[in-house]
## 1
Amino acid sequence: MSTISEPPRTTFHPAMLINDTRYRGLTFQFVALVLIIVFMAFLGMNLVNNLALAGLNISFDFLGEPANYDINQALIPYSSRSTHLRAAIVGLLNTLLVAFMACITATIIGVFAGVLRLSKNWLVRKLMSVYVEAFRNVPVLIWILMIGTIVQQGPSPRVYLGEDPERGLFLGLFAFTNRGITAPAPVFGPGSLWVVLALVTGIVGAILWRRHVRKTLYASGRLLPNWPIFLILLLPPVIVFLLLGRPIGVDMPDVLANRFNIQGGIELQRPLIALWLALSVYTGAFIAENVRAGILSVSRGQTEAAASLGFRPNRIMNLVILPQALRVIIPPLISQYLNITKNSSLAIAVGYADITATLGGITLNQTGRAIESILLLMLFYLVVSLLISAVMNIYNSSVALKER
Amino acid sequence: MKKTVLIGALTAGGLAAGMASAASLSDVQSRGTLNCGVSTGLVGFSAPDANGNWQGFDVALCRAVAAAVLGDPNAVEFVPTTGKTRFTSLASGEIDLLARNTTWTFSRDTDLGFEFTGINYYDGQGFMVPTNLGVTSALDLDGATVCVQTGTTTELNLADFFRANNISYEPVPVETNAEGQQQYLAGACDAYTTDASGLAATRAAFENPGDHVILPEIISKEPLGPLVTEGDSDASQWGDIVRWTLNALIAAEELGINSTNVADMASSAGDNPEVNRLLGTEGNLGEMIGLSNDWAVQAISAGGNYGELFERNIGENTPIGLARGLNALWTDGGLLYTPPFR
Amino acid sequence: MSDTHAQTVAYVRESFLEQAPPPERETGPIRWLRVNLFSNWFYAILTLLSIYVVYTLLSDFLPWLFNGVWNASDIRECREILQGATGGCFAVLAERWNQLLFGFSFPSDQYWRIVVAFLLFCIAAAPVLFAAVPRVLFVVTGLFPFVAYYLIWGGTILTPLAVLVGVVAGYFAYRRLVDQSFAMGLLGGVVAGLIVWWLAAFVPQDQPSFLALRPIPSRDLGGFALNLMLGVICVSLSLPFGILLALGRQSRLPIIKWICVVFIEFVRGVPLITLLFVANVVLAYFLPPGSNFDLILRVIIMITMFASAYIAEVIRGGLAALPRGQYEAADSLGLDYTQAMRLIILPQALKISIPGIVNVAVGLFKDTTLVSIISMFDLVGMIRGPILASTEWNGVYWELYGFAALLFFIVCYAISQYSQWLERQLNTEHR
């Protein structure tokens, strides 16, 4: 009996590496690995040879040298004496900024357009279809170029710079020019940290009050008023602000500083606006399709069931349809966010200084360090992409259907 | 469609076989065409016309080199390059010669491993502003927004200039001259800066050129010239050919040789020994750089001498309308001074 | 009785009334308006808002379109003709249409070659796209790559013929050997193909002008034709690679799986433009010294890499969507891996993936405009480069960008409509 249950002990034979399914996998993998290594070595050898022939080397020392060029929008202090590394970081932050802004607005636009595409209003429905189809079927580069041209059409700042400048500013606060939007900026004086801390305390207090309201409601059925929340929220920072002698001031746009530009205030520059707008409306069209598909994926029975339970329409949307639709919407939404980040690399077409324009553009050009620059550039995008997918996957698994 | 590319790869590989990284005379001659890197479109220097033929001052230099080396001014393959790609194209051997109004700088000549083979245009960076802005000097531009082409030396000069004068500005990077012009005209920037030649060309294309003024300050030296890769002796011979072709064009103007009389003068040795040496009726200068003795005749008959090329492409009678200025012969008070052909 | 009955019971009507029309507000356009546009105050506001938006857009757009100038030699002449009125300067399209479509250096007497190649492509694609088309047309599909190469790049017809012979030889070798094992068949096919190619390669070299079309260097390709070519070539090339990568990623062999995962995630994690920079600026350093692919080939390699990673993910989705039972059924029939994949899994998985693949294809086709950034003169490159740089047309933006957008819209919209149609066809699920 034992002879049957035990497999016959065969000695290992080289032919088994190909014919025996137990070993074949190993053979394949080994061959693949060798091929990859050979291929990589081939590329590496070529690189070394080519560099030697051209008398070049691989070195990241250039990152420490002064960049010698200026960047129009820097979120951290930067001047032309700063290093190439700092220029790259400025570009990196700019990329993240525009991608972040565009993700938010694209989502808003997308949700609106997606819901409106399912609206019962014929005209709105058609209009949204036109929007979605027009933007989905034309390359993003063309849209960026076109929107860049549109944004240029505004009035030049000279309209605002003149004898009676106050007249020009919108509400006396804002200026919309073809170089950007200028608005009053807060100025943080000494002691403003305490105001911020007081604001944080207010927020924490407000949250605690809400919790307290709910607790008493569940415990005793007594509904406490909601208005103290505003007092709790606003009083501490206002009191601290006044006590400390108004440490936070406002920097108004100054139209008299020089004859070229409006100075002071905070400026949202035209390149940023153009790229932000272009990425938002372009990606918004894709998100609209995802949202529409998500809502359609929730079966009608759900709506009817909720209605028969006596939910009002907006409650049905919020409590029944959207939570289920989100599960379908979120995975493609993640890839749309990734697309925004990647498409923001076309920034230079409208003159926005993202990382492709600084590190992959000017630095590469001025130093001639093509391999190093592009390597760093790809590394950056790779890390950002992986981070976004990781964060979004965590969120995704938290809303995923909990199945037994 | 997948096999198509395989064939493409095979044929391309076959065509390209034997092409060394650094260009050499034998490569060009065995290929039968000169691969010349030019800009993607800068009117006057290199731009395709309505019929798709490349025209311009830099293009003319490529044609002259092709004529000198291959005897045919049309045996040129023009490879459009951007500010970003031009040096890699040259380093990788995709092009034999880069004639893309490139500024001769120390680091490009040494660190990047290229060899500038002369200067075909002495330029300098200037500013253009609308007349109604009331600006008369670049020093008045404190706080202005300035459009600048990205990836060029102009960007660096701009930063240096404003820093040295302790005034501020806001750069607007643009990719091409056309885009710079678009932004400038739309009022998205107060001033446009690029090489003075480019400014003149751009202004000439405006609807009302009189509404714009080029400021007097020239803030940098921009010696523009052709370049080749540095390398072994073959490559250095190739560099010599390009250098002396350019010199031959300049010398031709100095010696009164032009496209109409060159054939005449080359038919027999004349009185001027330098003309004879240049045109190969005396001595063997051509052989010294590995070419036939009539190489300079070929180069000059391709489009004419330096002066003719200048007048035809960027001179005062063209839309670009540039005066000779620094680019006049040294005998006329300019900087063009070629070493003797001896 | 019956007579009197009617009279006695007065309220019973004995004749039909004329059918009354439905109330005014429930019929015709008014009902349609009420239901579709003004069903409540919110929709009414939305409708009015939309009408306003449409009106604003059209009041700018229509005069621009219909008042346009089609006949002028430069932008200044356009402005003179218009005298300040709104109107497009479409003369730029009239003068430069050939450059926009074919690039500026493609010889104009050879345009017919690209047109013929495009028409042939439509015929060749038909049997792949529509099941109703006669299967005979697959012959055209099979021959198309060779004919297209001949038409577009020119040279002697012997070159594509030699390759074709090699492919056919390889195919027959594969058919003979595939019964022994798939691997043997594949190996045999490849070896036979290579041998024939090696032998046949001498023929075109001997007869370089046999039935030759004028050779056109790939650098001279440009305009919208370049976008179309890049799109078609890269999508078709990336399909087989995408399938292999998807299979590799699903594989149980850890090393192969990880190679595929790393490749796919790397390519999907970086923007296409960086890969194009690699093609343009860096790739030359990684090739053996002395070799030099032309730019278009390097770009094709990189875009194909890019597309295959995306297609691999789509196909992986298709593989994952197949019920486990299909895999188990294949195993229980005693099929080995290649047989199971070829005969059971892939046909079903690919069918599910087709709409996704089409979406990738559309996206990729749109992304071919990025080559303009690396100094290739595709449609956008032509506009941003030579045309806008010329003194004649500097300042004409909307007409050119609008034209480019329109061309892309037509192609992409057609493909996406096809994809939706296909989805409905493939939808075997009954709701």
## 2
Amino acid sequence: MPFRKLNNVQLDILKEVSNIGMGHAATALSQLIGQPVMLRIPHVTITEISQVPDHLGGPEKLMVGITLRILGDARGSIMLLFPQESAHRLLCCLLGKQEKGLVMNELTVSALKEVGNILASAYLSALGSLLNKTLIPSVPMLAYDMAGAVVDYVLIELSENSDLALMVETDFIGEASPDFAVKGHFFLLPDPATLDIFLNVVGEES
Amino acid sequence: MSERVSIAQARIERAPMLLKAYGLGSCLAVGLYDPQSGLGGLGHMLLPKRPKHNPIGTDGKYVDAGIYQMVDVLVQEGADRESLIAKIAGGANMFESVHQTLIDSIGARNSKSARETLAALGIPLVGEDVGGNRGRTVEFDLATGIMMVYCARDDCNLSI
């Protein structure tokens, strides 16, 4: 279904579905880093593909992006974005003392990918049991660069079928101390055809 | 004066003007320039080729259609078709593990499509910085025809 035609009820359903998935993912992250993780209320944005980098804090902001394809009964992408300093803090939690700035090496890349894997798996398994669908995450991929460059891979895939992107975004914050918080953005970018699957299952015909 | 060229957009302007495309990953920035008239354009393109049936979105989204469109507009505005030159940047493969296959990555296909389209039009490609796994920001100066390429991660800046 075209993203533009979604009504408010359908948008609410998407928010709630994502909220449930994200709840599980936050629990997983909390266990991983040993601190409570707070979730913001998810928001659903339907936006021109060209505007997506601006929604992420500007196309030139340095970000660690971990992306996975959703495979199985529904298709889409998951993109997990950590601002540079949050990725660094996350690594401090996971690997102990780190160098001053964010350094990308085999160990740190692997650790961050694993975080992506755990979050996406928790999210998709909750989503899958809610929708009674099999949703499998692909192997995670990581890039550390400008936000625009990190997301355009996902946008290109999306743009073959649509000029709009539907982003279900949830921000999460680790609550160790305010100035040591791990912040991240979690995006679900369903392919247009997949949206029907989500909505049909919850009884909202498109 | 400077103007931003966002994703799937192609802009034609006249000197003095700085056209900027921020945060290119697999996307490709194509700059066309006529040194005689100071007319030039910059496109920020996503996909290599416009499908023949039911293309979605503007021409500026596709490398081939975007270049044709930019050339048309440049000529309409009074640029000399024969003195046009081209420069390209971008077309990276940000997620290196993705395409260890025989099929080229989307970034590489974008660069390839640009080369083919420019060759078909007989426009010389005088500079390029493509491929790798770096994000790039591009500034195309219509006063000089110089394209500056900035990378965020390793501070490598170059002009082509």
